[in-house]
Amino acid sequence: EFMTEIFSEEDELADDSDGKPVLFQRILDIGVLPLVLCKHSVRRIRALLEPCAAAHLSKHVSSDRLNRLVGLLVAAIQTAKDASLASMIKDGMLVDRGTELVTAYCERLELAMSVTCLGLEVAVLVFHMVAQGKALHVSSMGDLLHDCVAFLKECLLDCVVPLLDMDPECELAHAVFNRSQPLHGQMCTLLEAALATTNSVTAITAQHALCEEDIVPLLYASISVMFCSSALLSSGIESNLFESVRRSSQSLLRSVFELRADQRPWILEEILASLIKLPAQKRVQSMHRIAGGKSVQFITVLLLQLLQATAQSPEDLTAGFESGALSAKEYRILLQRHKKAVSMVSSSADFTIRYMIGRCAKRESKGTANEAEFRALLELFINDCVVLLGHPQWPAAELVVRIYSLHILEVLDDDKSDVVLKALALESAAQIASHIAQSQRLHDSSGGDGSGLEWISPSSSLESISRFQTATTTILEYLQAKVVSGESTGAIPLYIGNWAAMLVATLLKGSRSESSSDNDADTGDSGADNSDLGSDDSDSDSDSDSDNDQKDVSSTFDIHKRKAIE
C-alpha cells in the first residue's frame, strides 16, 4: 500500500510539466514533503523490507514493482547528483568574511544539502538491500550499487572534505558552522548522513560485494577524509561528529586492508603519498594520547592499526586442531599456520619501511622535492614506534622497530648509501638502543630480574613457564577489555601468533634429540621472522622427521614442561 502511494504521487508529478521545480520547492517547505523524494519514505521502505527474507521477497512484491522501486532509487541518486552541492560550496568559499551571503544562495545551499542527504539515505537503503541479498535479481541493481558508491565518493571528496577543510575566516564557514545560523543544523545532518552511509558501505565490503572499480576511488576519498583539518572545531561543529566521520572512514580503510591482500601495497603507498602532499601543519595536527602522558601521531596509529588488522584470528589458525593429542607432523602444520599469520603483518610492515627508505634517498637519475619530507616522516614514524614499545595495544610497533633495525644495518653496510640516509640510520640506531637501555634500567630499578617477558625454550624451568603464562594472560585480559573501544585492533591475534609459534616450536624442539636439528623448530626468533613463512600448511620440515610423525611428542620431552607449555 505504501509503495502504491509512492507510485501514485510519482505519476501525478510526472503529469505536471513543471513537476521537478515544484518538487524541489516542496522539499524546502517543511510539512509538505513529497513521498517520492523524502528521507522518511526511504527509511520506511527499509523498515518494510527488513523482516522480509530475500527468498520470499518476490512473494510480497512483484518483479514489476521491484523494478519500478529500483528505478525510483536510481532517479533519487541522479537528482542528488544534479543538486550540485560541491559547486555551490566552491562558490560560497569564494565569498570573503564580512560579505553577507545572499538569501537566495543560502536557500539553494540548504536545498542542495537536503537533496544530498536524501541521496545518502537512498545509498544506505541500497547497501542494506545488498547486504541482505534482496532484489539482487533486478537487472539494474548492479548499476544502482555502482551509482551509490560513486555518489558517496563524490560526497566525501567534493563536499565533506572541502567543508571540513574550509578556512574558518570565510563567510561560508560562519554561515554553516555557527550554531546560531539556520544552515548549521542542515550541515550536521549532512555529516550524520555521510557517517551512516560510510558505515553501511563498510558492512558490505566484508561480503566482497564491491568490485575493484568501486573500492579504489572510495578508499581514496576515505584517506582524504581522515586527513581533514580540525580547525573548524572552534567554530561550532561538534567535535564528536567530526571524529566519528573520520573514524568511520578509517574503519572502511581497515576493513578493505584486512580483507583484500592485493590492495595492501597500494593503500599503504597512497596513504604515505597523500600525507606528503599535505601542508606541514596538517601532517601533525592530530595526536593520539597514550599511557604515561605521551602522544604519538595519528598517522602512526593508523599505520599500526592497518598492520595489526592483517593478523589472523586464533580461531582460523587452530581449525582442525581443536581437541586431542597432536603428532609432531600436526604440530609442524600448526607452527606453519602461526608463522604465516605473523608473516602477513611482517610483509606489510617491511613494505612500509622499504617504501619510505626508498624515497628518503637521493637518486642520481632524477631528484624529488619530497626527499626531506619523507625523511622527516620516517623519523617521526620510527620515533613513535619506539615510544610505543612495551605498550600492550601496539605489538606491531616492536615488529616495525625490529624490521627497521635490519634495514639500518643494510644502509650502514652499503658504501653507496646516501650520506643523509646513513646519518638518519645512525640517529635511529642510537635512539632505539637508548630507549631499550632506559627501559631495562627502569625494569631493574622496579625489582625485576632483568628478563622481562622471557621466551620459552626446552631448557626453561617450570617457574619460567609459569611466569610466562601469568604475563601473557594478564596482557590478553587487558587487551580484551579494550576491544569494545577499538583500542586493541589486531593486537590479540598478533600476540597469539607470535607466542603460539614460539611455544609450538619449543614442543617440537624438545621432542627431538640434542643431536638432531630442524630449521622450522628454531626458537631463536619470536615467530615473526620472514624466513620459511610462505610455506603451505602441509609442508614438512626435514627429511629426518618421518619417524617422529608416528609418535607423540611427549616421548622425549619432560612431561611436566610439556603439559605446562600445552
Observed structural traits:
globular, 566 residues, 2 strands, two-stranded antiparallel ribbon, mainly alpha
Shape: globular
* C-alpha end-to-end distance: 63 Å
Give the % helix: 55-70%
Say how many strands there are: 2
Beta-strand content bin? under 5%
**What's the helix-strand series?**
HHHHHHHHHHHHHHEEHHHHHHHHH
Query: Averaged pLDDT, please?
Result: 75
Helical/strand content category: mainly alpha
How are the SSEs ordered, and which strands pair?
Layout: H1 2-15, H2 19-28, H3 39-49, H4 57-60, H5 63-82, H6 85-93, H7 103-131, H8 141-164, H9 171-177, H10 183-205, H11 212-226, H12 239-259, H13 264-277, H14 280-283, E1 287-289, E2 295-297, H15 298-309, H16 314-317, H17 328-360, H18 371-387, H19 395-413, H20 419-445, H21 462-481, H22 491-510, H23 559-565
Antiparallel strand pairs: 1-2
Helix pairs in contact: 2-7, 3-7, 5-7, 5-8, 6-7, 6-8, 7-8, 7-10, 8-10, 8-11, 10-12, 11-12, 11-13, 12-15, 13-17, 17-18, 17-19, 17-22, 18-19, 18-20, 19-20
Q: What does this protein look like?
A:
With 566 residues, the protein is mostly helical. 64% of the residues lie in helices and 1% in strands. It is built from 23 helices and two strands. Strands 1-2 form a two-stranded antiparallel sheet. Strand 1 (287-289) and strand 2 form a beta hairpin. Mean pLDDT is 75; it is low at 15-36 and 513-556.
Task: Please provide a brief summary of the model.
This protein has 566 residues and is mainly alpha-helical. It is built from 23 helices and two strands.
